């Protein structure tokens, strides 16, 4: 009868009084299949089925584990590219043959943590790499690829708080002026695509990479109604919206409202973009190009704040929505958030920046003086 042995399984069958116990099967089903085939072959006088080869009997290394998990479960996920990048880094740091079963325990986690710290990874990055290995191990255990406990013994590193830099109107104007003058090469008079990108981000709160670079400007919304989470909204005549495609953070397309100046950008750029192409088609804009120009701008303007990053444009937009008096559900819908917890941080910032809370308290104290 098949049973676990080391990181695989061992078959166990007795033929003519001789007990055979080959090991090295990766799954219990494979060991049982060998037992049945061995008995059948013996009955008809055929030789025993092949024993597991040395390659088959070798326990899974880290690369085996991650490659299997990626191919079988992760390849079609929206975050597949990021997963693949982290997989390659982990294999390079720990070694392709690092025993997968050792990663189930505290010692394996310490080795993973040490490798990440040697790279200078933050607590959040370590947590995500550990989560990647943990998920792969759980899948492998559930499907009988390796033997071990269902829950790897992983701790969790403290993570830094989210970035909370909000652009003031003065900083926004300086950035826009610099982007309007910046010349990436001598053949061009400026960088209009970066200025357009900057304005769209700060006006619409679109995610700076996953949404702005995947907008199809020729997709119009028909009718004047929009359904958001089961509520039918009547659109006012002056409301302009467009739909981002499904490469968003939640893998769902969503409607994004436009201010007048962002609407003008869409209308201007769509005249030069084929109907099946994205808004910035034909420009050099991608994540790395944007980051490079942002760094140059930061060096020139000397903002000197660690949280002055491209994503602060989205933070600025959502915080301004609260300052302007919009409610939590309204900002949540605008941002494309799925839970209020994601939106709450912007309400917190808006309360600090707008001074409305202190003003309301002052008014209350004044109105109730002497009572």
Automatic annotation (TrEMBL):
Ranges for domain Tyr recombinase come to 162-359
| A molecular function GO annotation | DNA binding
- Please name the InterPro entries in this protein's record: DNA_brk_join_enz, Integrase-like_cat_sf, Integrase_catalytic, Tyrosine_recombinase_XerCD
Q: Which GO terms describe its biological process?
A: DNA integration; DNA recombination
Q: Name one Pfam family in it.
A: Phage_integrase
- What's in the keyword line of the UniProt record? DNA integration, DNA recombination
* PANTHER family to which the protein is assigned, alphabetical: PHAGE INTEGRASE-RELATED, PROPHAGE INTEGRASE INTD-RELATED
The identity of this protein, by name, is Phage integrase family protein
Which species is the source of this protein?
Enhydrobacter aerosaccus
């Amino acid at each position: 009868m098949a049973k676990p042995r080391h990181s695989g399984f061992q078959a166990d069958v007795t033929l003519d009084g001789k007990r055979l116990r080959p090991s090295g099967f990766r799954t219990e089903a494979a060991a049982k299949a060998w037992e049945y085939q061995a008995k059948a072959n013996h009955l008809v006088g055929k030789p025993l089925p092949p024993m597991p080869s040395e390659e088959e009997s070798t326990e899974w290394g880290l690369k085996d584990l991650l490659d299997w998990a990626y191919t079988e479960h992760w390849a079609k996920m929206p975050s597949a590219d990021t997963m693949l990048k982290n997989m390659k880094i982990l294999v390079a740091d720990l070694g392709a043959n690092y025993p997968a079963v050792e990663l189930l325990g505290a010692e394996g986690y310490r080795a993973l943590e040490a490798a990440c710290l040697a790279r200078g990874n933050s607590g959040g990055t370590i947590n995500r790499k550990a989560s990647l290995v943990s998920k792969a191990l759980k899948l492998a255990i559930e499907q009988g690829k390796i033997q071990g406990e269902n829950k790897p013994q992983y701790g969790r590193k403290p993570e830094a708080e989210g970035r909370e830099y909000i652009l003031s109107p003065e900083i926004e104007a300086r950035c826009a002026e610099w982007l309007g003058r910046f010349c990436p090469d001598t053949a061009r008079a400026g960088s209009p695509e970066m200025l357009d990108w900057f304005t769209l981000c700060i006006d619409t709160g679109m995610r700076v990479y996953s949404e702005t670079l995947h907008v199809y400007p020729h997709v119009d919304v028909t009718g004047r109604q929009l359904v958001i989470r089961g509520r039918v909204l009547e659109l006012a005549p002056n409301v302009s919206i467009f739909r981002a495609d499904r490469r968003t953070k939640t893998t769902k397309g969503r409607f994004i409202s436009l201010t007048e100046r962002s609407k003008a950008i869409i209308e201007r750029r769509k005249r030069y973009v084929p109907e099946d192409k994205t808004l910035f088609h034909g420009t050099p804009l991608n994540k790395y190009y944007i980051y490079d120009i942002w760094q140059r701008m930061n060096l020139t303007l000397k903002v000197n704040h660690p949280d002055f990053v491209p994503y602060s444009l989205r933070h600025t937009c959502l915080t301004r929505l609260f300052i302007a008096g919009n409610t939590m559900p309204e900002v949540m819908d605008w941002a494309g958030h799925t839970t209020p917890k994601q939106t709450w941080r912007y309400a917190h910032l808006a309360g600090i920046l707008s001074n409305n809370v202190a003003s309301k308290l002052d008014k209350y104290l004044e109105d109730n003086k002497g009572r």
